[in-house]
């Protein structure tokens, strides 16, 4: 229930709807009970078993409520039935119909108001989840399957609505129904009601035992759903590779094993859930049967009128519906607990990469970026060791070396996607851990090897950093990035949708859009992480021209695989196993006849 309490914190902004729901449910329960009670005078008229009362009774308080209502009904039927039996019967039936109408009106209003609360809570949880996901560090998603995160944000949140939040409808309505009904039953026969009260806790205990393992079973179901959703997401992303390597059968087997586990877990969960209805109904019938035996004896012994007994049995049977609903709700709590735990796990995840109190705002990059004795490890193995480098404003520094030498890690650290293990990175003399993330990243534009584009228009993708950018600004950025030539030929120009991950475009076109996005941001520091390594020769030439346009008057950190693209850099830093082994201009490094010269020669031969 702890998770349920935490989820309910989201209901605070909507508490007025909760209050209105409670008020409506009070009237719903009241009129529902009165509808059953109104059956008694109808049966008295039908069986002509009305005690004659000629004087109108007076109200003497709640303790005398039963006698007052009985005497009032007897007085009314005595005075009216003597004149017209049919008229009396019609009047009482009208009362029952009106009571039933009022009950259902208030039932609808209760549902109407609780809808705002349920859907409002659902919306706020989703919004908080999305905001949390966008702010969590990259490292978090390196350890999690994307499909699992998607399931937590969709299926688990839906489960919270269908299990936890549905209880909000029951937590007042059904208990009130039971309370009002039991009150009426007590008025009719305290002895019979005592018999009922013995069986209700016993039934609740049996039902709770049946649903004991629901939480753990629901967890298995949601986790497995996350697993096969991840497989599906990876399959859609890697269809070319799967088909190219004839791996369809292998992937199918993996997917089918997951769905088979999901099938088994879902069956076990559903079997237990399905027992709630039949178990509660059977136990209810046992109570009703006991009431028939015990109440029948009272009727035979003259301790209870027949009409009262029939009305009492109607009330008793009516109490089964809310009792069954509460039994199912208890199952819902256990099932929803598992989903709430998974959702709250994300919401409670601590973000270690965040602004310090009174973080420094860097409004404009002015001097230099410095790496001071930097060390970093993704897990146990260090990928950077005692790395020190200064990049003055306006200079271009290229990082080269074999794969795994730590080049891309520099880009991840300077943007604070990860935090350094030892040492520090500073911008204009400020440790970037002391600088606000927003102002730090405002100073930087990033172009990666993989062109990350969104299923939207060219304009939206290019103007990602500035939603208020004009069409003219977007077109100017495209021209600088050598992208306007092909964008202008698209069916709707900059307002053409480029498809999922930009797949309507070629690799070179996608990369030039990524460069245009960096151009429009107009940040003073440009980070190019192997921006041309995946391109053909013609696309590379166009992209390289675009990059040279962008790099003018900017500080650039270029992580390069193709050495031909960085020969004009002010400084080339050669890395190996996380350390700097050589640095200098292209000519200086060639003259050294060292590692850089060997790399150049190998690429020339290739």
From TrEMBL:
Membrane topology, from the record: Multi-pass membrane protein
Name of the protein: Antibiotic ABC transporter ATP-binding protein
Pfam family, one: ABC_membrane
GO MF entry, a single one: ATP binding
Domain (ABC transporter) ranges: 369-602
PROSITE patterns: ABC_TM1F, ABC_TRANSPORTER_1, ABC_TRANSPORTER_2
SUPFAM superfamilies, sorted: ABC transporter transmembrane region, P-loop containing nucleoside triphosphate hydrolases
Domain ABC transmembrane type-1: 72-335
InterPro entries xrefs: AAA+_ATPase, ABC1_TM_dom, ABC1_TM_sf, ABC_transporter-like_ATP-bd, ABC_transporter-like_CS, P-loop_NTPase, Type_1_exporter
Coiled-coil annotated residue ranges, if any: none
Organism phylogeny: Bacteria, Pseudomonadati, Bacteroidota, Flavobacteriia, Flavobacteriales
GO CC annotation terms, alphabetical: plasma membrane
Alphabetical UniProt keywords: ATP-binding, Membrane, Nucleotide-binding, Transmembrane, Transmembrane helix, Transport
SMART domains, alphabetized: AAA
UniProt xrefs under Gene3D superfamilies: ABC transporter type 1, transmembrane domain (1.20.1560.10), P-loop containing nucleotide triphosphate hydrolases (3.40.50.300)
Transmembrane spans: 20-42, 89-114, 178-207
Subcellular location: Cell membrane
């Amino acid at each position: 229930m702890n998770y349920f309490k935490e989820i309910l914190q989201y209901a605070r902004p909507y508490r007025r709807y909760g209050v209105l729901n409670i008020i409506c449910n009070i009237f719903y329960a009241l009129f529902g009970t009165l509808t059953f009670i109104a059956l008694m005078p109808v049966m008295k008229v039908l069986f002509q078993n009305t005690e004659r009362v000629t004087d109108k009774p007076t109200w003497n308080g709640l303790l005398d409520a039963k006698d007052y209502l009985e005497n009032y009904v007897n007085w009314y039927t005595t005075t009216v039935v003597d004149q017209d039996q049919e008229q009396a019967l019609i009047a009482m039936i009208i009362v029952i119909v009106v009571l039933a109408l009022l009950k259902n009106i208030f039932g609808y209003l209760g549902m109407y108001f609780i809808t705002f609360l349920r859907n409002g809570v659902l919306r706020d949880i989703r919004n908080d989840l999305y905001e949390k996901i966008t702010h969590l560090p990259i490292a978090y998603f390196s350890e999690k399957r994307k499909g699992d995160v998607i399931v937590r944000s969709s299926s688990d949140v839906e489960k919270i609505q269908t299990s936890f939040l549905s209880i909000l409808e029951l937590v007042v309505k059904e208990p009130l129904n039971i309370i009002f009904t039991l009150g009426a039953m007590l008025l009719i026969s305290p002895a019979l009601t005592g018999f009922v009260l013995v069986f209700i806790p016993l039934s609740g205990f049996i039902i709770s035992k049946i649903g004991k393992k629901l939480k753990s079973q629901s967890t298995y179901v949601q986790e497995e759903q996350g697993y096969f959703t991840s497989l599906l997401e990876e399959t859609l992303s890697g269809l070319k590779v799967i088909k190219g390597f004839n791996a369809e059968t292998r992937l199918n087997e993996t997917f089918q094993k997951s769905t088979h586990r999901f099938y088994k877990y879902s069956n076990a969960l559903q079997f237990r859930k399905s027992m709630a209805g039949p178990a509660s109904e059977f136990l209810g019938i046992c109570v009703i049967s006991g009431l028939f035996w015990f109440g029948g004896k009272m009727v035979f012994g003259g301790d209870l009128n027949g009409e009262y007994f029939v009305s009492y049995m109607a009330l008793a049977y009516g109490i089964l519906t809310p009792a069954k609903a509460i039994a199912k709700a208890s199952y819902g709590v256990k099932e929803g607990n598992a989903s709430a735990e998974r959702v709250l796990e994300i919401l409670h995840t601590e973000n270690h990469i965040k602004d310090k109190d009174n973080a420094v705002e860097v409004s404009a990059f002015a001097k230099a970026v410095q790496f001071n004795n930097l060390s970093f490890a993704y897990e146990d193995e260090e990928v950077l060791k005692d790395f020190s480098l200064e990049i003055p404003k306006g200079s271009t520094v290229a990082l080269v070396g074999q794969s795994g030498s730590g080049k891309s890690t520099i880009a991840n650290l300077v943007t604070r996607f990860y935090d350094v293990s030892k040492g520090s990175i500073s911008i204009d003399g400020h440790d970037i851990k002391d600088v606000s993330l927003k102002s730090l990243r405002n100073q930087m534009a990033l172009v990666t090897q993989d062109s990350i584009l969104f299923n939207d228009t060219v304009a939206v993708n290019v103007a990602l950093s500035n939603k208020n950018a004009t069409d003219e600004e977007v077109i100017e950025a495209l021209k600088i990035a050598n992208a306007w030539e092909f964008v202008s030929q698209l069916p709707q120009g900059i307002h053409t949708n480029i498809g999922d991950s930009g797949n309507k475009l070629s690799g070179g076109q996608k990369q030039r859009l990524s460069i245009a996005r960096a151009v429009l941001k107009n940040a003073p520091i440009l980070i190019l992480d192997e921006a041309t390594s995946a391109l053909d020769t013609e696309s590379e030439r166009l992209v390289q021209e675009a990059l040279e346009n962008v790099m003018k008057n900017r500080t650039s950190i270029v992580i390069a695989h193709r050495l031909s693209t960085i020969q004009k850099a002010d400084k080339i830093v050669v890395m190996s196993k996380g350390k700097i082994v050589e640095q200098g201009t292209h000519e200086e490094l060639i003259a050294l006849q060292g590692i850089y010269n060997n790399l150049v020669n190998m690429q020339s031969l290739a």
